[in-house]
Amino acid sequence: MIGIVVTGHGHFPSGLLSAIELVAGKPENVTAVDFEGGQSQADLQTALDAAIRGLEGDEVLVLADLVGGTPFNTASTIREQIPGKQVKVLAGINMAGMVEAVFSRAMADFGQLAGMVAEAAHSGIVNLESLEGPGEEPEFEDGL
């Protein structure tokens, strides 16, 4: 099974993983690496390296919060330095992308999954006004 590491600033990664657990239960082979104030880039690199190595399988998808941020840059730097692991790094993760990653990884190959997650994260951002018709309220099903 494809492993997933979520990383980003503050407690965003562990918070996102906590939200996934509320919706879908605790996913297997998924971990979060927070980058908190006071940590150095070297600390983050050590934590990311350990997280990637600690996951089962040889394919790991690293989902970062911001392109160009320290977690994304660090993951990008170490992705080819971990023997026996094939690592892909995506930035801009949100709840929609995370749900896609967790639920689709069993059905998609590694290359497809990265594209599916990026598309889900992108399309998961919606302006409420675009859902409303003239003079009507949008209809929603019950939440997750």
Automatic annotation (TrEMBL):
Transmembrane segments: none annotated. Keywords: Cytoplasm, Kinase, Phosphotransferase system, Sugar transport, Transferase, Transport. It comes from Enterocloster lavalensis. GO terms for cellular component: cytoplasm; membrane. This is PTS system, N-acetylgalactosamine-specific IIA component. It is found in: Cytoplasm. Pfam families: EIIA-man (PF03610). GO terms for biological process: phosphoenolpyruvate-dependent sugar phosphotransferase system. One of its GO terms (molecular function) is kinase activity. Residues 1-125 form the PTS EIIA type-4 domain. The lineage of its organism: Bacteria, Bacillati, Bacillota, Clostridia, Lachnospirales.
